TrEMBL record:
<dbReference type="GO" id="GO:0008201">
    <property type="term" value="F:heparin binding"/>
</dbReference>
<comment type="similarity">
    <text>Belongs to the R-spondin family.</text>
</comment>
<feature type="region of interest" description="Disordered">
    <location>
        <begin position="172"/>
        <end position="213"/>
    </location>
</feature>
<keyword id="KW-0358">Heparin-binding</keyword>
<dbReference type="InterPro" id="IPR036383">
    <property type="entry name" value="TSP1_rpt_sf"/>
</dbReference>
<dbReference type="Pfam" id="PF19028">
    <property type="entry name" value="TSP1_spondin"/>
</dbReference>
<dbReference type="GO" id="GO:0005576">
    <property type="term" value="C:extracellular region"/>
</dbReference>
<keyword id="KW-0879">Wnt signaling pathway</keyword>
<dbReference type="GO" id="GO:0016055">
    <property type="term" value="P:Wnt signaling pathway"/>
</dbReference>
<protein>
    <recommendedName>
        <fullName>R-spondin-2</fullName>
    </recommendedName>
</protein>
<keyword id="KW-0732">Signal</keyword>
<feature type="domain" description="Spondin-like TSP1">
    <location>
        <begin position="114"/>
        <end position="167"/>
    </location>
</feature>
<feature type="domain" description="R-spondin Fu-CRD">
    <location>
        <begin position="9"/>
        <end position="110"/>
    </location>
</feature>
<dbReference type="InterPro" id="IPR043601">
    <property type="entry name" value="Rspo_Fu-CRD_dom"/>
</dbReference>
<keyword id="KW-0325">Glycoprotein</keyword>
<dbReference type="InterPro" id="IPR051514">
    <property type="entry name" value="R-spondin"/>
</dbReference>
<dbReference type="InterPro" id="IPR044004">
    <property type="entry name" value="TSP1_spondin_dom"/>
</dbReference>
Length: 213
């Protein structure tokens, strides 16, 4: 029998015009649907999103998933499919995967990721395999892969990185290097020397000129 727009007595063993199904046929799940202020019972082959089928000797029921952001669950505390935008991990739903786990986008699941060890100390500053002879070089540090990821498609984080550094020795011991001319800090002294040289050259020019006359 149909009461109103919905076939609320479909699959029922007993049904009420006001409350819909009260008891369901064997193997069907009883689901209490709410619409505004009204609620009525339905008998379903499978429970709707956010619910799971709980089988009991008395009557099979649709029980609500108690896990946040869960779309469907296996039991009250174990989610099998999370809502859009959430990753499933050990029966729970997360915006991002916990530490040590990587996101498998095609399944929206968290799987064991690539584990790496601690960074080593920074190595010796060098350039062209030399630790001297240059002002600047590079120093490198590394870390080891402790555990490979469960899926080959999941990349490991970087295991080596370098940074610019200043050489401990600009010039190699025993090596030849060109000395730069010393800069005269006293500009007045430099100017005075230039003036003296100019006056001396002028005096020589005058003496030569008189001789030639």
């Amino acid at each position: 029998a149909n009461y109103g727009p919905n076939p609320i007595c479909k699959g029922c063993l007993s049904c009420s015009k006001d409350n819909g199904c009260i008891r369901c046929q064997h193997k069907l799940f009883f689901f209490l649907r709410r619409e505004g202020m009204r609620q009525y019972g339905e008998c379903l082959h499978s429970c709707p999103s956010g619910y799971y089928g709980l089988r009991t000797p008395d009557m099979n029921r649709c029980s609500r998933c108690r896990i946040e952001n869960c779309d469907s669950c296996f039991s009250r505390d174990f989610c099998t499919k999370c809502k859009t935008g959430f990753y499933s991990h050990r029966g729970r739903c997360f915006r991002g995967c916990p530490a040590g786990f990587a996101a498998l986008e095609e399944l929206m699941e968290c799987v064991e990721g690539c584990e790496v060890g601690q960074w080593s100390e920074w190595g010796t500053c060098s350039r062209n395999n030399k630790t001297c002879g240059f002002k600047w070089g590079l120093e490198t540090r590394t870390r080891q892969i402790v555990k490979k990821p469960a899926k080959d498609t999941i990349p490991c984080p970087t295991i080596a990185e370098s940074r610019r550094c200043k050489m401990a020795m600009r010039h190699c011991p025993g090596g030849k290097h060109r000395r730069r001319p010393a800069k005269t800090k006293d500009k007045k002294k430099k100017k005075k020397n230039l003036m003296e040289r100019a006056q001396k050259q002028h005096s020589i020019f005058l003496a030569t000129d008189k001789t030639s006359q």
